[in-house]
Amino acid sequence: AQSVTQLDSQVPVFEEAPVELRCNYSSSVSVYLFWYVQYPNQGLQLLLKYLSGSTLVKGINGFEAEFNKSQTSFHLRKPSVHISDTAEYFCAVSGNTGNQFYFGTGTSLTVIP
Amino acid sequence: NAGVTQTPKFQVLKTGQSMTLQCAQDMNHEYMSWYRQDPGMGLRLIHYSVGAGITDQGEVPNGYNVSRSTTEDFPLRLLSAAPSQTSVYFCASSQFYRGGGQYFGPGTRLTVT
Predict the structure, then answer these.
(1) How distant, in Å, are the alpha carbons of A36, A58, A108, A109, A111 from that of A83?
(2) C-alpha–C-alpha distance, residues A92 and A45, integer Å
């Protein structure tokens, strides 16, 4: 089975500053990794995903994430945040033996003007 | 292309009542799933389906039933509502290969009194 740990439940950051949201996973098999964003009172939207190949993955809205197999991490980064990035961010993993997705508990990003 | 739709958006039930949450997608996705989202717990998988006529249990299936008679629809039934089922419910779909990200509906906010 897989599991996901998001190390920070809340991350406040000033506008135009960089941000990193941390995600670690555990799995005994090869995995696919995802980051989703949830704006207030909405469903989740896919930001980016890692399937294979280059460990640096670029997504929408200027976000990127780096897959680190040795550290079992998939941290999300953005070099300069905007007010509109204020949202809940979820890391998720699925194994290559099934179709179940496992989500972390989420990180609430608040961008301060 | 409406994506994933859910009805109703809000619902209040009394303990012991039953109801069905509706979910439909128009993307011809084989894989559909139901999650519940509770504060501090992320998303937890209730049931999922990899195609019409095929369903399976997720992490928290007790108290819920599903069926998948068509590719498009995946209703979730609460058999006898309990206050512990107060939550926000999300339906999601994806193509049936494990590298696909999921498309989420807007959610149903359910309160059981």
Answers:
(1) 18, 20, 13, 10, 5
(2) 12
Tokens (6 digits) for A77: 């980064």
Element (H, E) at B15: none
What is the per-residue pLDDT across A11-36, written as a single tens digit (0 to 9) for each? 999 999 999 999 999 876 778 899 99
Residue with tokens 């003007």, as numbered in its chain: A113
User: How far does the CA of residue A103 sit from the closest CA of chain B (Å)?
Assistant: 6
DSSP run (H or E) holding B62:
none
Q: How far apart are CA A44 and CA A37, in angstroms?
A: 6
Cα–Cα distance measured from residue A109 to residue A99, given in angstroms and rounded to the nearest whole number: 28
Chain A residue whose CA is closest to B107: A43
Q: State which residue of chain B sits closest to A34, comparing Cα positions.
A: B101
State whether residue A30 sits within 8 Å of chain B by CB.
no
Q: Which of A4, A32, A100 sits opposite B58 (nearest CB)?
A: A100
Of A32, A46, A90, nearest to B43 by CB-CB distance is: A90
Q: Which residue has the tokens 């179709």?
A: A99
pLDDT in tens, B29-66: 999 999 999 988 889 999 999 899 999 999 899 999 99
Of B112, B3, B2, give the one whose Cα is nearest residue B64: B112
Cis peptide before A79 (omega within 30 of 0): no
Q: Which of A9, A43, A95 sits opposite B106 (nearest CB)?
A: A43
B58 touches chain A (CB under 8 A): yes
